[in-house]
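Worked Example 4.2. Consider the chain below.
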Amino acid sequence: MEILKIGSDSLKISLCTKETFEYNLNDLDNETVKNSFIRLFVKIRESISFNVTGEKVVAEIFTGKDGGCEIFISRVEVRENMYKERALEEPVKKPRRTVSIYAFEDLETVLMVSKRLKDINFCADSSLYYDERREKYYIMLDDISSKDLKYAFMNEYAKNIKNILGPTIKEHYKCICKKDAIKKLSSLY
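Applying the procedure from the previous section yields the following structure tokens:
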């Protein structure tokens, strides 16, 4: 048996195959394991100054291919209102902003789709970029889902692009309209 003190509240115990069978840790029945750990803790207390009597502990057992095992034991501090306090401390998470990106072949289609989006009262932020090399237009629409049926018509006119490409588009393509692109473009159709 090898006992390694990791910190003031943690231990690592390595047992060979023979010791694993000696402490009945090959049979992971709850009552057997509990009795085995009582015997182990007595042995640990004799070997090093690590006493867990009357304390809450967490133990993780990792068995090896050879039949031996490693056991990690940690004392756990239990506070009375631990979960309630934690709930109050955590900040409220804002909902994650979704951006949908569509690639268009020509400006006329971009204008027509912008008009249709305005007609269905699209009012979130939008922007338009142009790839001069490929001669494609990219519309970025905030707070919509490509799975929302009222936007299904978009797939008839444009290709839905993965939103992880957004930063690349913003960095490498020419920005035609940075804010409220749908509002501005719809008035041109």
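The first strand starts at residue 2 and ends at 7. The chain has a mean pLDDT of 83. Compare this with Example 4.1 before moving on.
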